[in-house]
Amino acid sequence: MATFYFLKDGGNQLNNLAILSMICYIIFFSMGMGAIPWLLMSEIFPAKVRGKAGSVATAINWTCSFIMTETFSMINNALGPALTFVAFAVELTVTFFFVWKYVPETKGKTLEEITRSFE
User: Measuring CA to CA, how many Å separate 38 from each of 15, 33, 76?
Assistant: First the structure.
């Protein structure tokens, strides 16, 4: 999307880039940061605190979404649309490496094995 805004006088081909960027965002967000946190909550939190911890995690998630929604226009006005999307790309890159390094792999493990790995 940043490329679209950097080169926005490029005609129809560039309009297709913007549409393709939005479609890719929706697909990848739905497979990654949109769904995985909800899945991980049920696996990472111990059963005795899962309800309360899930509530806190959900509240934090929605609070961050609200803050992002409320501040987007200020960021966009300050940086311009191209640099705003570059900043988001940088943030997502940092998030990717954080998840890759610190979020434990739970594939093929039972809840008991996951719980033991945190003890």
Answer: 34, 9, 29
SS3 46: coil
Other Cβ atoms within 10 Å of 25 Cβ, number: 14
- Token output for 76: 């966009």
Q: What end-to-end distance do the CA atoms of the chain give, in Å? A: 43
| Residue position matching structure tokens 């490029």 | 10
Q: Which residues contact 37 (CB under 8 A, 6 or more apart)?
A: 57, 61
**E strand or H helix that includes residue 65:** helix 50-79
Q: What separation in angstroms does the CA of 106 have from each of 40, 53, 111, 118?
A: 8, 18, 9, 12
Helix (H, G, I), strand (E, B) or coil at 112: helix
Q: What are 13-43's pLDDT values in tens digits? A: 788 888 898 898 889 888 877 887 888 887 8
Helices 36-44 and 111-118, axial angle in degrees (round to 10): 80
Q: What percent of the chain has pLDDT over 90?
A: 24
